[in-house]
Structure prediction request, 539 residues.
Amino acid sequence: MAKDLRSWLRELQGEAAGELIRISKEVNPSEFEATAILDQMESQGRFEAVLFEKVKDLRGRPSPFRILMNTFGTLRKIGVALDLPTGKRIGIIERMLERQTKAFKPLRIPKNQAPVKEKVMKGDGLDLRALPIVRHVDMDGGPYLTPIIVSKDPEGTRYNVSWNRMMYLDSKHLGIYMSPRHLWSYFSKAESQRKNIPIGVVLGHHPAFHITGALLTPMNEDEYDAAGGVLGEPLRLVPSEAYGEELLVPADAEMIIEGEIHVERRVVEGPFGEFTGYSGSQRLACLFEAKAVTYRPDAILIDIFPCKTEHLNAHLPIEASIYGKVKEAVPTVKETCWIGSGGPFHLIISLKKTMEGQPLRAAMAALSASNFLKHVIVVDDDIDPANLQEVMWAVATRVQASENVVILKGLQGHVLDPSVRHEVRSDGMIIDATKPIDRPFPKRGEVPGEVLKKIRLEDYVEK
Amino acid sequence: MDIFDVTCPKCKKVYYCDLLLFDLEVKLHCPYCGHYFYRKESPRVYVGGAGTSAVAQIKGGLRPEMIYEPEGEKNG
Prediction:
């Protein structure tokens, strides 16, 4: 049996019981009802995956489809997707790094064996209003899909797998926003050929496939191969309905909208609540025209709550890449913490400093590894980078701003950072919160270890 | 990227757009009521950059009658 969303749900129920809840009461996702539930859960510190079993489509009718949200609400669920159900935070990051440096060539299968081909909607029968689409936060420009986009290099054979937001426009059109990364570079090539670019909009597959969309794969490596690496088995592919062999799509998806991005059209798109926690501004984006929808009759569509924790967690491959690069630069790096660092553009590195200058070297390796980062704090290995109280204590007690803070001007930043005034140019900052090792430095006040072993709390204080 | 606040002429709610859209002849789309409109139809557009002084922060926005025109200017 090939891995798909349903196999992951079964594993989740078996290995991480309590990480999934089902809601059988009907909700209208385009009227914020799904995110209202998730928002309240998050306020209570609850991050279970939520399967909405009865949802309304965009016409307000009961939908045969279901919606799964908070798929990436906890690292544990991602651990299950990576076959590491009981791993700790750094263990899951290391497993992610290991999986994303492997690759398996995909497997071609015939159409009649592809679950996603069970039903087809095209021509006059194609109506995107038949889908349940979530409107997430108050200022969203409309209902939004948060799918995985599969696309092929217009000048080659490489496939790209990316996460892109898509705003509902009408029964056959969506707006698609591309940040200046790989899909955008394919679009630019297609634009210079004045030829629309065909894509597949994947709305539900194994979470390991979805998380491939956040991989920082080099442009000379195929992301269908990389998806196999992350899944731990070859990804099964099948020719698309609308473009045949020209566009191969994942066979085990729940639903795929096939269509093309117009190179000579633009749409006003947004605002959209992004992973930064802010509603990003209305802007110009590209126009997608749907040509066919293939799906399982009771398809489960994955949706991300973009303003919230699960969206940051879904960036785990980026954290794993950064961790790998930082460790390569300074092997005594113990841990990194990006997700959970208190902001989408921070990284905290803990390392065992053996030489002055190592913190800066590690921080610069991190900054060069990803444009998501602008602030890097480096702490000693006695500090847990995921414990912000400890990190801030180190900053408070081990930093002199004139000596230990480095400002980098004109760094390539992230287009969605609300604080940048230029489209992508940003400032970087490195805070070296490690103790100096070339001069004496005070010791942390600690109760002697041998006394701690002898005096047991439970012998003196009742529970 | 810098943004500008725009008030929807229909529902009067405020949202924001990329500054890139400021000078383009495209219809903006109100996320609250779905109304499409040109920027020039908006009763209030706020680009910012005017500072935070009491002079710049005018309740209800700057109205044309608030601008003093010197006599010489009025008479052309």
Observations:
- Residues 182 and 219 of chain A are 7 Å apart (CA to CA).
- Chain A has a mean pLDDT of 94.
- Chain A has 13 helices and 23 strands.
